[in-house]
Design goal:
Arc Repressor Mutant, subunit A; about 140 residues; about 10% strand; mainly alpha; globular; DNA-binding; transcription regulation; cytoplasm
Length: about 140
């Protein structure tokens, strides 16, 4: 079944990230938050949640932990107190260079050629888009 293969691949991926991120005390979801912030910041919690497909109940604890580690800060908008903006700290920005080897390490663990990985990414994006398009918004 495709669903089991996807589940097994997801678990294996998470376990691989857990091993390589352990020295920094980071989880895979925390690492994903950092990647998003390295690409573009400041970001609102809402923007980040949309990009990572995480609701605020899941994202807020991740942000809290990263903030307690000193990698980011959060601030409320003066214009609208419901809007929380996230900024990387100097330590959070410095961490990007320190973790620059992680994608290569994960690629090595995958044991598939770059072209195969690129094709798989494209297929998974299409798969995800198809499922999202076929699911009513209220589910």
């Amino acid at each position: 079944m495709l669903c089991f293969s996807l589940y097994a691949a997801s678990r294996a991926t998470t376990q691989a990230y857990r091993r390589v991120l352990k020295p920094w005390g980071l989880t895979y979801p925390q690492y994903l938050v950092l990647i998003e912030l390295w690409e573009s910041q400041p970001r609102t919690v809402s923007e980040l949640g949309d990009d990572l497909m995480l609701d605020s109940g899941t994202l807020s604890p991740l942000l809290g932990r990263l903030e307690s580690l000193g990698y980011l800060s959060r601030s409320r908008s003066v214009a609208d107190a419901r809007v929380v903006t996230i900024h990387l700290t100097d330590s959070g920005r410095d961490l990007q260079a320190e973790l620059a080897h992680i994608p290569g390490e994960i690629a090595r663990c995958m044991a598939i050629p770059p072209a195969g990985a690129a094709a798989l990414i494209a297929e998974l994006r299409d798969y995800t888009a198809g499922l999202q398009a076929s699911t009513p918004a209220h589910d």
